[in-house]
């Protein structure tokens, strides 16, 4: 994944983010930036399948070699992607804060060792739920340290006992990224047709309203009620 801040307002004043898919798992993502100059934040993403070892190695090698190598690879891969890709590639060259990274997920078997603690994405990265999970983790860690004064070992063991099973259960697999970013033109068309039907008929709103009534709710962690000191 590459992160770009083009100097121009590529969204032309639009206040909604835009997501574009091209074949081969190529993704162009743009969102408004609160910068007074009206800039746009952009991402170029490559979603690869588990069997596409060659593309994975090319991307990994470019990341290791640095920004210039990665930008050249993005120009090669996204040169014929269509939509606003040419403008984004130009903005990539003009950007003063470009950086690239692997889109990975931490799946640590433990979240504390001695007095060292992993919190948030460092211990349990969860796309779409990471911020909430980090806040929950901070709450539990602070509460356990408060509840076990002078016994850091017990506090951290309790923190891990509460957070680790919930975090592992929430992480799931990588199927979601593959489903929303199809590799083929037919896959993209099928996804767009399904999403278009769901949103135009408002089935998404109906599902959100009905599922809680039927007992289907999001995963929850049983939160201890810590006795916080008075302000």
Describe the structure in your own words.
- With 231 residues, the protein is of the alpha+beta class.
- The protein is built from 9 helices and 7 strands; from the N terminus they run ββββαααβββαααααα.
- It has helices spanning 53-65, 67-78, 85-94, 121-124, 130-147, 152-171, 175-180, 185-200, 203-213; strands at residues 2-4, 18-22, 26-32, 40-46, 99-100, 112-113, 116-117.
- Strands 2-3-4-1-5 form a 5-stranded antiparallel sheet, with helices on one face.
- Strand 6 and strand 7 form a beta hairpin.
- Helix 2 runs antiparallel to helix 3.
Question: What's the structural blueprint in terms of helices and strands?
Answer:
Elements: E1 2-4, E2 18-22, E3 26-32, E4 40-46, H1 53-65, H2 67-78, H3 85-94, E5 99-100, E6 112-113, E7 116-117, H4 121-124, H5 130-147, H6 152-171, H7 175-180, H8 185-200, H9 203-213
Antiparallel strand pairs: 1-4, 1-5, 2-3, 3-4, 6-7
Helix pairs in contact: 1-2, 2-3, 5-6
Proportion of residues in helical segments: 40-55%
The geometry reads as globular
Hey, roughly how much beta strand do the residues contain?
5-15%
Rounded to an integer, what's the Rg over CA atoms? 22 Å
Distance between the termini: 44 Å
Instruction: List the strand order in the largest sheet.
Output: 2-3-4-1-5
Largest sheet: 5 strands, antiparallel
Derived from helix and strand composition plus strand pairing, the structural class reads: alpha+beta
Query: How many helices in DSSP terms?
Result: 9
- Average pLDDT metric: 83
Poorly predicted runs of 5 or more residues: none
Strands, total number: 7
